[in-house]
Design brief:
- With about 180 residues, the protein is mainly beta.
- Helix content is about 10%, strand content about 30%.
- The chain has two domains: about 50 residues, no CATH class; about 110 residues, no CATH class.
- The strands form four sheets. Strands 6-7-8-9 form a four-stranded antiparallel β-sheet, with no helix packed on it.
- A hairpin with a 7-residue loop joins β8 and β9.
């Protein structure tokens, strides 16, 4: 346990030395952005936020269903070329195969877009789409084993859109919190 605390303290220190900062942080106790930057969420469909830092998504929640959405207003901060998206969640395997979305930056009129979620094989997955006049979409899967339904995970994707190849643009991080598993990258 001491090793973990030391690593977390080191990460916090290094984070404070860099120019990066938290843009938004949602705990799902409500729809408020707890970073203080004002990126509060709007409940656009049937999602329910609960006390205790949980959100329950009903009605399928697949990326193609278009339901169970919580959204934040568009902002230039969402267009950074280098960022990390993190989530702690309890995984529930979908009843039908398909991509399940944890977080995404989508736009109606083109532009750069990304989606972080799980693939139809229940492994971490990212889709990137550039904002060129002829958009190119890259689907990048992780090499992790399938997530286990009912387990709680820490999952992150460090994204660098300036990297030359799609595989170099993503670094996945995963930890099975339920089984006190090691960090994987």
């Amino acid at each position: 346990m001491k090793k973990t605390l030391i690593l977390l303290a080191t990460a916090s220190l290094l984070g404070s030395l860099s120019h990066a900062g938290t843009v938004a942080h949602w705990q799902f106790n409500d729809l408020t952005d707890s970073s203080g930057n004002g990126y509060n969420l709007t409940n656009t469909n049937s999602s329910t936020s609960l006390s205790g830092g949980q959100a329950i998504f009903t009605g399928g929640g697949s990326s193609t269903a278009g339901n169970d959405l919580m959204s934040a207003a568009d902002n230039p901060a969402w267009d950074d070329t280098s960022f990390t998206v993190e989530a702690i969640f309890t995984f529930t395997a979908p009843s039908t195969a398909g991509i399940s979305t944890l977080a995404a930056h989508l736009s109606n009129g083109g532009g750069r877009q990304w989606l972080l979620g799980t693939s139809d094989t229940n492994t971490p997955y990212v889709i990137l789409r550039n904002n060129a006049s002829t958009p190119v979409e890259s689907s990048i899967g992780s090499t992790f084993a399938a997530l286990v339904s009912g387990n709680t995970y820490y999952f992150a994707a460090a994204i660098d859109l300036t990297a030359a190849t799609p595989a170099d643009r993503i670094t996945f991080y995963l930890r099975d919190i339920t089984n006190d598993g090691p960090f994987q990258s």
